[in-house]
């Protein structure tokens, strides 16, 4: 089943996207800062979410990892 139709897989993909974008922006900010609008602006927005809400994102990643490892 694809990640679009499975809610838990969709949440996992979104969390991984947010974490990856925030990590890439911390290493090379110019890659994401030049594309703030349009389709590539999604990655900039994900990086901003990852930076500003990092404690909440970290808790969500731990909960998601726990559920994938032990519940499924």
Annotation keywords:
single chain, 72 residues, mainly alpha, 4 helices, 78% helix, globular
Describe what is shown at a glance.
By secondary structure, this protein is mainly alpha-helical. It has 4 helices and no strands. The longest helix has 21 residues, at 7-27.
What do these coordinates show?
The chain has helices at residues 7-27, 29-33, 41-52, 54-71. The protein is an all-alpha fold and 72 residues long. It has one domain (7-71). Helix 1 packs across helix 3 (41-52). The protein is globular and about 40 Å long. The protein starts with 6 loop residues before the first helix and ends with a helix. The model has no long low-confidence stretch (mean pLDDT 87). The chain crosses the membrane at residues 54-71. Keywords: Golgi apparatus, Membrane, Signal, Transmembrane, Transmembrane helix. This is Protein kish.
pLDDT average, as an integer?
87
* Cα end-to-end separation: 15 Å
Query: How would a crystallographer describe the biggest sheet?
Result: none
Number of strands: 0
Number of domains: 1
Low-confidence stretches: none
Taken as a percent bin, the fraction of beta residues is: under 5%
Q: How many helices does DSSP assign?
A: 4
Oligomer designation: single chain
Query: What is Rg?
Result: 13 Å
User: What is the 3D shape?
Assistant: globular
Give the structural class.
mainly alpha
N to C succession of SSEs: HHHH
Subcellular location: Golgi apparatus membrane
Keywords: Golgi apparatus, Membrane, Signal, Transmembrane, Transmembrane helix
InterPro entries: KISH_domain, Ksh1
Pfam families: DUF1242
